[in-house]
Amino acid sequence: MTGTALPQPADLFALSTDRIRRAAADLWPDEPLTLGDHVPSVTGYVRRVGVGGRDLFAKDSVLGLSLVSVLHGLAGDRDRVRATQAAYATSPASLLAREAAQLRTLDAAGVRVGHCAGYASGVLFTEPVTGPTLADLITKEPARTLDLLTAAVTGLEGLQHPRVVCQVDAAPIPERSIDGTFRRKFNGVSGRIYIGRLGLDRLDERTCQGVAAVVGTVVARLLKLRLAPPIGPTVIVYGDLKPEHVLFPDGPGEAPVFIDPGLARGPAHHDVAKLVSRAFLMLIAAPPVDAPASAVVDGIAAFVADQTRALRGTLRGRWLRRLLVTWLMDTVNILSTYLTAPTELPLPEHAQTVFDQAEALCPVLDQVSAQLVAATDPYAAWQLALRAVTKAAAR
Ligand SMILES: Nc1ncnc2c1ncn2[C@@H]1O[C@H](COP(=O)(O)OP(=O)(O)OP(=O)(O)O)[C@@H](O)[C@H]1O
Ligand SMILES: [Mg+2]
To answer: Is the model more confident about 312 or about 70?
Structure first.
C-alpha cells in the first residue's frame, strides 16, 4: 500500500485498540485488561473491555470526526491520519476529553448519566448502563411513547444548572449540532459530489438513483430554508439525544440514564427534533409488530404538543417550523452517513433496516420539505407529516 492510500477500517481499529490498551495501562497499571466485543458505530470506535473484575465500555475517536468521514479521506491519507491522531489524542481539547468532563459535570449536577470510569490519552472509559433503551421500549410498548419521550426531556432539566452552563461554555461539543452537520455535509460542490455517491455500494442501481434524486431535492430545499433566523433563546442542549442514548435501567416508569453527551449551546427545539427524527426513522425502518404505527405517531404528536404548549401566538408556529426543518436535516444527515459508509465498515443493526426502507422514507422527506418551501401553515405541515410517516410505516 502506498503513502497516499485512504485509511482502512482494519488499520483504524488496530490503532484504536492499541490506544485503548495504553490508556488502560496508564489509568490502571496493576489491573489486567481483556478486550471484548466491538460495538459497531459510524462515529467512533467503541469496544467492551474488562479491567480487573470490572466490565467497561472503551471509546476512541479519530480526530473527533465520524469514522465514515475519515474513511473517505476527509482528514487526509492513512499516514496523515496516523500522525495527526497521535497529537490529537493527547490534546486536552480532544472530543473525548470534553465528553469525559461533561459526564463528570452532569453527574455532579444530578443529571443521571453513565459514570465516567476514567479518561487517558484520547480514550474514554464508561461504566455500563444496563436496561432497555428508549428505542427498545417504544417498539415494545408503543402506547407508552408519550410518557417515555416526556421522561427523556424531564430527565435533562438539570442541563440548565449554572454549574453545567459554566462547564459547557468552557468546553462545548459543537460537533453534534444538527444544523452544523448538515451544512458541513451538503454545502457547495463537495455537497453535490457527496449526494452523487449515496448508496452506490449499498443499494441496487434503481433504488440508488431514486434515493439520490430525492435526497438531492430535499437538501436543496433545506439549504434555502435554513437561512431563516433561529428563534428563541439558546439553551444548553444534550446534542445527540437519540433514543439509543436514553436507557431505563430501573424500568419504563422510572427516570432514565443518559449516555454519550454532546452538550453545547443550541436552539431550544434541537433535542426534541433529534428525538422526533430518530423515533420516526425507527418507526419507518422497524414498525412495532403487535400495534399499529399510529400508536407511536400519536404519542409523538402528543409529546410535541406538550413541548409547544407554553409558547404563544406566532412563536408556536415558528417553533414547529424549526422543528420540521431540523427533523428533516437530521434524517438526511444520518441517512447519507449510512448510505456512504464503506462496505468494510461494520454498521449498527439499525442501519440495515434503514437501507431496506430507504424508498419508504423518501416520500416523507419529499412531501414535508415541499410543504416547508411552499410556506404552508406549520400546523397543517405537521399534520401532513404525521400522516406521511404513518403511511410509510404501515405495511
Ligand atoms: N456506558 C455505556 N453503557 C451502555 N451502553 C453503552 C455505553 N457506552 C456505549 N454503549 C453502547 O455503545 C453504543 C455506541 O457508544 P457511543 O454512543 O458512546 O459511541 P458513538 O461512537 O457516539 O456511537 P453512535 O454514533 O452510535 O452514537 C451506544 O449506543 C450503546 O449501545
Ligand atoms: Mg453515540
So the answer is: 70
